[in-house]
Design a protein that fits this description.
Blueprint (H helix, E strand, L loop, with lengths): L2 H9 L3 H23 L2 H17 L9 H22 L31 H16 L3 H11 L5 H8 L3 H19 L14 H4 L1
Helix pairs in contact: 1-2, 2-3, 2-4, 3-4, 4-7, 5-8, 6-8, 7-8
């Protein structure tokens, strides 16, 4: 895919070129939204809103990382949703499926090829991680997902969140500490490397 040519064509009003960009990035955009929100319907809506916003503002794209530019749209849509939820909290501690039943393990955290003896522990660990991500403030959650899951560079994350580089590094460090501290409540599920008990620190 010649991304730059597609972007240039889309900026000139070529809808087919923009649709090809959507197809290339829609899974990435949805996955980020789902990790932020933990709910399929709202994740789909936020992803759609982000692509609409990207199309409307495509002429403002001045080069650089198109991925980071697009993820800014997705992140902003998700942060708006999380702030709305904070005003009117409706989020369960555990993720739910289409029938509003609690899931043992969200699909995006599941191991690709777990051995049979690891399945139960993996599901419990997945739920613990999902729960602890849900305890982070939206800005902290966004930073840790963009860096540790989407593998964006610090500079790209700073561009996505429109924050100084030092702020991004500070938030990431604090988010990782908060996530680690939360996971200590489930340390029996963690690999020994990540347990903060006296034996592992000795």
């Amino acid at each position: 895919m010649d991304e730059q040519s597609l972007i240039q064509d889309a900026q000139q009003g070529d809808l087919d070129a923009f649709n090809r960009l959507v197809l290339a990035y829609q899974n990435m955009a949805y996955n980020l939204a789902y990790r932020m929100l933990g709910e399929e319907e709202r994740s789909e809506e936020c992803t759609q809103d982000a692509f609409f916003s990207a199309y409307r503002h495509l002429r403002s794209y001045q080069g650089g990382s198109f991925k980071a530019w697009l993820l800014r749209m997705v992140t902003n849509a998700c942060l708006d949703e999380l702030r709305r939820r904070k005003r009117r909290p409706v989020i369960p501690l555990e993720p739910v499926n289409d029938t509003d039943e609690e899931m043992d393990s969200p699909a995006w955290l599941a191991s690709n090829d777990p051995s049979p003896e690891e399945i139960i522990n993996q599901r419990e660990l997945d739920s613990a991680i999902s729960h602890c991500l849900g305890t982070l403030m939206p800005d902290f959650k966004a930073v840790i997902l963009l860096v540790d899951v989407e593998n964006l560079e610090y500079e790209e994350v700073a561009s996505v969140l429109k924050s100084p580089l030092g702020t991004i590094k500070s938030r990431l460090a604090r988010a990782r500490l908060k996530l680690r501290d939360c996971l200590q409540g489930f340390k029996e599920l963690l690999p020994s490397l990540y347990r903060l008990d006296k034996e592992s620190e000795a």
